[in-house]
From TrEMBL:
GIY-YIG domain: residues covered: 51-140
PROSITE patterns: GIY_YIG
Name of the protein in question: GIY-YIG endonuclease
Chain spans, region Disordered: 218-244
Residue ranges, compositional bias (Basic and acidic residues): 230-240
Family of the protein in this entry: To endonucleases of group I introns of fungi and phage.
SMART domains (UniProt xref): GIYc, IENR2
One Pfam family named in its UniProt record: GIY-YIG
Amino acid sequence: MFPVYSYIKVRAYSTSSPKDTNNSNFDQFIPAAIYEDAFTMKKAILKDNAGMVGIYMLTNKLTGDIYVGQSIDLSYGRKRFLNYFNLSYLSRRNELIISRALIKYGYSKFSVTILEYCDKCELDVREQHYFDTLNPQYNIQKVAGGSSKGLILSEESLRLKNKISQALKGVYLGDKAYWYGRTMSAATKEIMSSTRKGELNPLYGKSHSEASKELMRQKAAASNPPSGDKAGRKYSEETKLLMSSKRGNPVNIYEKCTSV
């Protein structure tokens, strides 16, 4: 028996597997919890799994495709699982198939399944178990705990990646975009801001090295190079003063006079 959370947030119990997945191998598992709507149940997902270590699965309810991942914290903090609820993160990581799918279909089209809770030392073993059994379509690399950086994909993986990539092309833009016409309330903005202040800020207590600063200066200069007649031009001091006088604000200087 495991908890299933409905759209109206009333807890019920069931022994059935997620009805939207097209993977028959899932029937052999008894997941820890299933949340039928990633959008409306976000708060419940984060609250119920605060500080929990485990393996999770995202299921596209329209296509049945799945993504399997691990997290040392299935809720709050700057952890991998929470990043999937961050559109800014998804946009930066659009090379990931799951990122593009979440942006295209929207959170409400995905369910979240906590496959199991486990010890931190068991994460890689358990994640690999689900990779081998479920063969998730949204995972590019099916090696637990690994990184796709420098990975050489097999012909079959490349074929599958290309197939899914083609299916995800044409991400909704303009009035078809998921967030089009929506605005965040002041309360929501304040909550988002509070999660990035002080020690929660990823740059808290950190400082850029001189090498990093120089690299940022070079990139800034390269992105905004002088153009046209101004490229490479040096101005005389007289010209600089003239330009300053035209662009600056006038300053009036008053002298106190004493009447005789």
